Amino acid sequence: MDPFLTLLNAFSSSLSEPELAALKFLCRGEVTKRKLESVQSGRDLFGFLLEQQLIASDKVSFLEELLKNIKREDLVSQLKQFVEEGGVTAPDDQPDVHEKRLQKAAIEIICDNVGRDWKMLMRKLDVSEVKLERIVAANPFNLHEQLLQSLREWQKWKGREAKVADLIKALRACNMNLVADKVENKVLQLNTGTR
Fold first, then answer.
1. How many helices (H) and strands (E) does the chain have?
2. Phi and psi dihedrals of 59, rounded to 5?
3. What is the reported pLDDT for 189?
4. In this structure, what CATH number is given to the domain that contains residue 187?
5. Which of 79, 83, 123, 171 is the most buried (most CB within 10 A)?
6. What residues form DSSP beta bridges with 56?
7. pLDDT > 90? residue 83
8. Same-domain check for residues 78 and 63
9. End position of a domain, from candidates 88, 123, 138
10. How many Å apart are CA 63 and CA 11, to the nearest integer?
């Protein structure tokens, strides 16, 4: 699989509707109006930019300018990392199947039990303020979704290093011991159930 396409696909998934609308507007001089009208996702737009050879794995300046214009510095830094490393993080950077199952259960418990103090938890997990603000802006009136998206962002960022033990440690550091206990109990159930 082409690492550049994987990167563009990841970018597409993280774009909000207003960000996609802004990108379409910025591409008006490069992509025909008819094509822009048919764009429903970042993937569609990136596909047209690839076709017109405005972007490629070795030609990212146009894409970088677009991302800077919509204030997505997080994506700009991922793009720069891609260029520096000559590729993106491989699938083997993902947690194993068992750890993913534990994370899924832990995240469900955290989302159901952590309330307005969710940002404190995310800060303990070292998720950046910029990412938190973007998630809040994308889900302004949905606390549950804000927390869920933040935890997913943490998982993506940490990759293989994302561990349920880190979630429990962060919960305890925030004095959310009841939630930490619930997560530990669920992990224990899942671990004894798999043996």
1. 12, 0
2. -145, 85
3. 92
4. 1.10.533.10
5. 171
6. 59
7. no
8. yes
9. 88
10. 11
Task: Mark whether 43 and 79 lie in a shared domain.
Answer: yes
Rounded to a whole number of angstroms, the distance between the first and last alpha carbons of the chain is: 35
Do 122 and 148 lie in one domain? The reply is yes
Q: Which two tokens stand for residue 73?
A: 């510095």
Pinpoint the alpha helices (H) of 15-142.
17-26, 33-38, 42-51, 61-69, 73-85, 97-113, 118-124, 129-138
| Residues 111 and 147: beta-carbon distance below 8 Å | yes
pLDDT confidence bin for 89, thresholds 50/70/90: very low
pLDDT, one tens digit per residue, over 99-158 is 888 999 999 999 999 989 999 999 999 988 988 998 898 888 899 999 998 998 898 888
- Closest Cα to residue 157, out of 68, 65, 86, 93? 93
Query: Six-digit token pair at 114?
Result: 């952590």
Domain match, 50 and 104 both: no
Instruction: With beta carbons less than 8 A apart as the criterion, state whether 1 and 10 touch.
Output: no
- Do 33 and 113 belong together in one domain? no
**Domain assignment of residue 190, given as a range:** 93-194
Report how far residue 168's alpha carbon sits from residue 183's, in angstroms, rounded to the nearest whole number.
7
Task: Out of 88, 117, 151, pick the residue that ends a domain.
Answer: 88
